[in-house]
TrEMBL record:
Cofactor binding, per record: Binds 1 zinc ion per subunit.
Protein name: NAD-dependent protein deacetylase
Cofactors, names only: Zn(2+)
Lineage: Bacteria, Bacillati, Bacillota, Clostridia, Eubacteriales
Gene source species: Ruminococcus intestinalis
Function: NAD-dependent protein deacetylase which modulates the activities of several enzymes which are inactive in their acetylated form.
Enzyme Commission no: 2.3.1.286
Keywords carried by this UniProt record: Cytoplasm, Metal-binding, NAD, Transferase, Zinc
Positions that bind Zn(2+): C128, C131, C149, C151
Length: 241
Protein backbone atom coordinates (compact mmCIF):
# COMPACT_ATOMS: atom_id res chain seq x y z
CA UNK A 1 0.00 0.00 0.00
CA UNK A 2 1.19 3.51 -0.79
CA UNK A 3 2.37 5.99 1.84
CA UNK A 4 1.27 9.52 2.75
CA UNK A 5 4.79 10.74 1.98
CA UNK A 6 4.47 9.42 -1.58
CA UNK A 7 1.15 11.22 -2.00
CA UNK A 8 2.61 14.41 -0.55
CA UNK A 9 5.42 14.33 -3.12
CA UNK A 10 3.00 13.77 -6.00
CA UNK A 11 0.89 16.74 -4.89
CA UNK A 12 3.97 18.93 -4.33
CA UNK A 13 5.16 18.16 -7.87
CA UNK A 14 1.77 18.75 -9.51
CA UNK A 15 0.18 21.94 -10.81
CA UNK A 16 -2.97 20.73 -12.58
CA UNK A 17 -4.54 18.17 -10.25
CA UNK A 18 -8.05 16.99 -11.02
CA UNK A 19 -10.04 15.25 -8.29
CA UNK A 20 -12.65 12.75 -9.47
CA UNK A 21 -14.93 11.81 -6.56
CA UNK A 22 -17.84 9.52 -5.80
CA UNK A 23 -20.15 8.76 -2.89
CA UNK A 24 -17.26 7.80 -0.59
CA UNK A 25 -16.21 11.46 -0.44
CA UNK A 26 -19.50 12.43 1.23
CA UNK A 27 -20.02 9.44 3.53
CA UNK A 28 -17.69 11.07 6.08
CA UNK A 29 -20.22 13.92 6.20
CA UNK A 30 -22.92 11.43 7.14
CA UNK A 31 -24.49 11.10 3.68
CA UNK A 32 -25.24 7.43 2.88
CA UNK A 33 -23.90 5.95 -0.34
CA UNK A 34 -25.76 3.51 -2.54
CA UNK A 35 -23.80 0.31 -2.74
CA UNK A 36 -22.07 -0.28 0.59
CA UNK A 37 -23.42 -2.71 3.18
CA UNK A 38 -25.21 0.11 5.00
CA UNK A 39 -26.03 2.09 1.84
CA UNK A 40 -29.39 2.95 0.34
CA UNK A 41 -29.52 -0.13 -1.87
CA UNK A 42 -29.69 -2.36 1.20
CA UNK A 43 -32.61 -0.62 2.88
CA UNK A 44 -36.17 -1.82 2.49
CA UNK A 45 -38.66 0.11 0.38
CA UNK A 46 -41.63 -0.88 -1.76
CA UNK A 47 -39.38 -0.45 -4.79
CA UNK A 48 -35.59 -0.64 -5.18
CA UNK A 49 -33.85 2.77 -5.09
CA UNK A 50 -32.70 2.28 -8.71
CA UNK A 51 -36.35 2.06 -9.74
CA UNK A 52 -37.52 5.00 -7.64
CA UNK A 53 -34.69 7.21 -8.90
CA UNK A 54 -35.54 6.61 -12.56
CA UNK A 55 -37.11 8.99 -15.05
CA UNK A 56 -39.99 6.59 -15.66
CA UNK A 57 -40.82 6.32 -11.95
CA UNK A 58 -40.63 10.11 -11.54
CA UNK A 59 -43.15 10.56 -14.35
CA UNK A 60 -45.53 7.73 -13.38
CA UNK A 61 -45.33 7.77 -9.57
CA UNK A 62 -44.23 11.32 -8.81
CA UNK A 63 -45.64 11.48 -5.30
CA UNK A 64 -43.95 8.23 -4.28
CA UNK A 65 -40.71 9.45 -5.87
CA UNK A 66 -40.82 12.55 -3.68
CA UNK A 67 -41.59 10.59 -0.53
CA UNK A 68 -38.31 8.68 -0.99
CA UNK A 69 -36.42 11.70 -2.29
CA UNK A 70 -37.26 13.93 0.68
CA UNK A 71 -36.47 11.15 3.13
CA UNK A 72 -33.20 9.86 1.68
CA UNK A 73 -31.73 12.29 -0.85
CA UNK A 74 -32.19 15.70 0.80
CA UNK A 75 -29.45 15.70 3.45
CA UNK A 76 -29.56 19.46 3.88
CA UNK A 77 -28.15 19.49 7.42
CA UNK A 78 -24.87 17.83 6.41
CA UNK A 79 -21.62 19.80 6.35
CA UNK A 80 -18.41 19.50 4.30
CA UNK A 81 -15.74 17.19 5.73
CA UNK A 82 -11.93 17.25 5.72
CA UNK A 83 -11.75 16.05 2.11
CA UNK A 84 -13.94 18.88 0.82
CA UNK A 85 -11.97 21.52 2.72
CA UNK A 86 -8.57 20.16 1.66
CA UNK A 87 -9.60 20.20 -2.01
CA UNK A 88 -10.79 23.80 -1.71
CA UNK A 89 -7.44 24.67 -0.11
CA UNK A 90 -5.53 22.98 -2.95
CA UNK A 91 -7.56 24.88 -5.53
CA UNK A 92 -6.97 28.21 -3.77
CA UNK A 93 -3.24 27.46 -3.74
CA UNK A 94 -3.26 26.90 -7.51
CA UNK A 95 -2.54 23.17 -7.27
CA UNK A 96 -5.94 21.77 -8.17
CA UNK A 97 -7.65 22.81 -11.40
CA UNK A 98 -11.05 21.12 -11.01
CA UNK A 99 -13.27 18.77 -9.03
CA UNK A 100 -15.35 16.28 -11.00
CA UNK A 101 -18.02 14.76 -8.77
CA UNK A 102 -20.72 12.13 -9.01
CA UNK A 103 -22.30 13.55 -5.84
CA UNK A 104 -25.36 15.79 -5.81
CA UNK A 105 -25.03 17.33 -2.33
CA UNK A 106 -23.22 20.59 -3.14
CA UNK A 107 -20.67 20.07 -0.35
CA UNK A 108 -17.64 20.88 -2.53
CA UNK A 109 -18.99 24.37 -3.18
CA UNK A 110 -20.00 24.74 0.46
CA UNK A 111 -16.36 24.11 1.41
CA UNK A 112 -15.15 26.77 -1.02
CA UNK A 113 -14.35 24.93 -4.27
CA UNK A 114 -15.00 27.12 -7.32
CA UNK A 115 -14.60 24.86 -10.35
CA UNK A 116 -16.83 21.85 -9.75
CA UNK A 117 -18.31 19.68 -12.48
CA UNK A 118 -21.40 17.98 -11.04
CA UNK A 119 -21.94 15.03 -13.38
CA UNK A 120 -25.22 14.01 -11.78
CA UNK A 121 -26.56 17.49 -11.00
CA UNK A 122 -27.44 18.91 -7.59
CA UNK A 123 -30.29 18.65 -5.09
CA UNK A 124 -29.77 22.35 -4.41
CA UNK A 125 -31.20 23.27 -7.83
CA UNK A 126 -34.84 22.60 -8.75
CA UNK A 127 -36.98 23.94 -11.53
CA UNK A 128 -40.58 24.03 -12.73
CA UNK A 129 -41.03 21.74 -15.72
CA UNK A 130 -43.67 24.09 -17.12
CA UNK A 131 -42.25 27.62 -16.78
CA UNK A 132 -38.66 26.99 -15.67
CA UNK A 133 -38.81 28.94 -12.40
CA UNK A 134 -36.08 27.95 -9.94
CA UNK A 135 -36.78 26.62 -6.44
CA UNK A 136 -34.55 25.85 -3.47
CA UNK A 137 -33.97 22.47 -1.87
CA UNK A 138 -35.59 23.83 1.28
CA UNK A 139 -38.78 24.49 -0.68
CA UNK A 140 -38.80 20.86 -1.84
CA UNK A 141 -38.04 19.55 1.65
CA UNK A 142 -40.87 21.53 3.25
CA UNK A 143 -43.46 20.83 0.55
CA UNK A 144 -46.05 18.08 0.77
CA UNK A 145 -46.93 15.54 -1.87
CA UNK A 146 -45.85 16.67 -5.33
CA UNK A 147 -44.17 20.11 -5.15
CA UNK A 148 -45.90 22.51 -7.52
CA UNK A 149 -44.91 25.86 -8.98
CA UNK A 150 -47.14 28.91 -8.65
CA UNK A 151 -47.97 28.31 -12.34
CA UNK A 152 -49.21 24.80 -11.32
CA UNK A 153 -46.32 23.03 -13.05
CA UNK A 154 -44.51 20.11 -11.36
CA UNK A 155 -41.10 20.96 -9.90
CA UNK A 156 -38.22 18.59 -10.72
CA UNK A 157 -34.83 18.36 -9.00
CA UNK A 158 -31.90 19.21 -11.26
CA UNK A 159 -30.43 15.74 -10.75
CA UNK A 160 -29.71 13.13 -13.39
CA UNK A 161 -32.09 10.23 -12.84
CA UNK A 162 -31.60 6.73 -14.22
CA UNK A 163 -32.55 6.68 -17.94
CA UNK A 164 -31.54 10.34 -18.31
CA UNK A 165 -28.41 11.56 -20.07
CA UNK A 166 -25.67 13.65 -18.52
CA UNK A 167 -25.49 17.37 -19.29
CA UNK A 168 -23.26 17.92 -22.34
CA UNK A 169 -21.65 21.13 -21.09
CA UNK A 170 -20.77 19.53 -17.74
CA UNK A 171 -19.37 16.41 -19.39
CA UNK A 172 -17.25 18.43 -21.83
CA UNK A 173 -15.85 20.56 -19.01
CA UNK A 174 -15.01 17.48 -16.94
CA UNK A 175 -13.39 15.67 -19.87
CA UNK A 176 -11.27 18.71 -20.77
CA UNK A 177 -10.14 19.10 -17.16
CA UNK A 178 -9.16 15.42 -16.92
CA UNK A 179 -7.41 15.49 -20.31
CA UNK A 180 -5.28 18.47 -19.24
CA UNK A 181 -4.46 17.23 -15.72
CA UNK A 182 -0.94 16.29 -14.71
CA UNK A 183 -2.29 14.27 -11.75
CA UNK A 184 -5.69 12.58 -11.41
CA UNK A 185 -6.91 11.63 -7.94
CA UNK A 186 -9.88 9.24 -8.02
CA UNK A 187 -11.54 8.86 -4.64
CA UNK A 188 -14.59 7.35 -3.00
CA UNK A 189 -15.90 5.56 -6.07
CA UNK A 190 -16.07 1.93 -7.17
CA UNK A 191 -15.59 3.07 -10.79
CA UNK A 192 -18.56 0.97 -11.87
CA UNK A 193 -21.10 3.71 -12.69
CA UNK A 194 -21.04 4.67 -16.35
CA UNK A 195 -20.74 6.92 -18.26
CA UNK A 196 -18.98 8.78 -15.43
CA UNK A 197 -16.38 6.04 -14.79
CA UNK A 198 -15.48 6.00 -18.48
CA UNK A 199 -14.17 9.57 -18.26
CA UNK A 200 -11.02 8.33 -16.56
CA UNK A 201 -9.73 7.08 -19.91
CA UNK A 202 -9.15 10.68 -21.02
CA UNK A 203 -6.36 11.09 -18.47
CA UNK A 204 -2.92 11.17 -20.10
CA UNK A 205 -0.97 12.82 -17.29
CA UNK A 206 1.84 11.72 -15.00
CA UNK A 207 0.32 10.23 -11.86
CA UNK A 208 -2.91 8.35 -11.17
CA UNK A 209 -3.90 8.11 -7.50
CA UNK A 210 -6.73 5.90 -6.22
CA UNK A 211 -8.32 6.35 -2.78
CA UNK A 212 -11.22 4.04 -1.96
CA UNK A 213 -12.31 1.87 0.94
CA UNK A 214 -12.50 -1.21 -1.29
CA UNK A 215 -10.46 -2.37 -4.28
CA UNK A 216 -11.45 -1.01 -7.70
CA UNK A 217 -10.97 -2.33 -11.26
CA UNK A 218 -8.26 0.31 -11.79
CA UNK A 219 -6.08 -0.40 -8.75
CA UNK A 220 -3.47 -2.21 -10.85
CA UNK A 221 -3.17 0.74 -13.24
CA UNK A 222 -2.65 3.39 -10.55
CA UNK A 223 0.68 4.82 -9.37
CA UNK A 224 -0.56 5.12 -5.79
CA UNK A 225 -3.39 3.16 -4.12
CA UNK A 226 -4.98 3.80 -0.72
CA UNK A 227 -7.75 1.71 0.82
CA UNK A 228 -8.89 4.16 3.47
CA UNK A 229 -11.22 7.06 4.13
CA UNK A 230 -10.70 9.99 1.79
CA UNK A 231 -10.98 12.78 4.36
CA UNK A 232 -8.69 11.13 6.88
CA UNK A 233 -6.00 10.66 4.23
CA UNK A 234 -6.21 14.10 2.61
CA UNK A 235 -6.18 15.76 6.03
CA UNK A 236 -2.57 14.56 6.41
CA UNK A 237 -1.50 16.46 3.27
CA UNK A 238 0.19 19.83 3.64
CA UNK A 239 -0.58 22.44 0.97
CA UNK A 240 2.80 23.83 -0.09
CA UNK A 241 2.64 26.68 -2.57
Amino acid sequence: MSSVDELQKVIDDSHRIVFFGGAGVSTESGIPDFRSVDGLYNQKYDYPPETILSHTFFVKKTEEFYRFYRDKMLCLDKKPNKAHYKLAELEKAGKLSAVVTQNIDGLHQAAGSKRVYELHGSVLRNYCMKCGKAYTAEFIKESNGIPKCECSGIIKPDVVLYEEGLDDKTVNGAVNAIANADTLIIAGTSLTVYPAAGMVRYFKGNKLVLINRDATPMDSAADLVFHEKVGELLDKIKVNI
